Amino acid sequence: MASRKTPDATRRSERSRVAILTAARELIAEVGYAKLSIEAIAARAGVGKQTIYRWWSSKGAVVFDSLLALSEGADGEGIALPDTGDIEADLKTVLRATVAEFADPEFEAPIRALNTEIINDAELAAIYREKMAAPVEEAKKERLRSAQRAGQLAADADLDLFLEVLYAPLAQRWLLRSGPLDDAFADALVDAALRAFRPE
Amino acid sequence: MASRKTPDATRRSERSRVAILTAARELIAEVGYAKLSIEAIAARAGVGKQTIYRWWSSKGAVVFDSLLALSEGADGEGIALPDTGDIEADLKTVLRATVAEFADPEFEAPIRALNTEIINDAELAAIYREKMAAPVEEAKKERLRSAQRAGQLAADADLDLFLEVLYAPLAQRWLLRSGPLDDAFADALVDAALRAFRPE
């Protein structure tokens, strides 16, 4: 869309946009999604409510964009799993890092808020899958294909199912707080998934 | 706690309680948790708001009790998995039934609402685990122990991990609507879990 804005106005817009997304992300971590309001985001960002509503239709939409901005490589660039040639070691490295992220309130609070939204909003769930989940899953599958070529994983393994068996138990323990989320659990999941899909 | 109520008053109380829990369950399925109000529950149940607040501290507490009342065998009685001697066939029967339940809006809407609450409320999560999840998990583990005795499952298999590998991917597809929830997926999960924990 062509813009009639002067360069100064464009710079001001971009500054406001960044301030709003930063405020949304900070406030989610501080007060949680339920208590987050457009008013509070506007006050923290130093803009009027109207400025927010000009760009976003709802609280959920701002929050989603604030998390998308946070997620490096949401455009599919720059995501790659380690490939040392040892799939077991590499997956354990990656899963332990995920466990560490979930232990960090600054990281986990906004993601928990996002999950709450996604669970109750099928449309947001579809956007999330396309924009955030799919690029990351493709990067993970790229690493799994390399393991298949190396004969460390069954050639006919269903890679989507593999990723669900590997990650869903971790996500569930985190979401429902149903058990310890630690390195031992991360390692046990990797071992179980590799046993389930090992070459015959 | 001793009650000074007359038998008639006790019967009226019990009738109100049942009406409130039924109304809460119906309304969750109809309007979802976010739009559910104590006012609406009171109106549907034909009681005053005060009556609800006398027994429950919050919307979440009423909803939780309404689902607890729904869950047959939440006290641990009457839950048992089929045991035909064939663990693969029995688990496929059970997982296909779970998939069918998730396809039923009347069943899945309140459980989705409950999950949303649990994700954002660590205290409710602990109550849920103790009152609803633990008895059901124990019944499942009973069936797995029988499979271990029959040599169909590794004797040293971590049964908690087995259940998470089996059920978390199913719960995740349902919650995030991230893929088809059908018999083929149920069967593939059973096959993967059994491969991961088969006897050496």
From TrEMBL, chains A, B:
Keyword Transcription regulation applies: yes
Domain HTH tetR-type: 14-74
DNA-binding region as annotated in the record: 37-56
Cited Pfam families: TetR_C_11, TetR_N
PROSITE patterns attached to this UniProt entry: HTH_TETR_2
Organism: Saccharopolyspora elongata
Entry keywords, A to Z: DNA-binding, Transcription, Transcription regulation
GO molecular function: DNA-binding transcription factor activity; transcription cis-regulatory region binding
Domain of life, source organism: Bacteria
PANTHER family tied to this protein: HTH-TYPE TRANSCRIPTIONAL REGULATOR RUTR, TETR-FAMILY TRANSCRIPTIONAL REGULATOR
Name of the protein described by the UniProt record: TetR/AcrR family transcriptional regulator
Gene3D superfamilies, alphabetized: Homeodomain-like, Tetracycline Repressor, domain 2
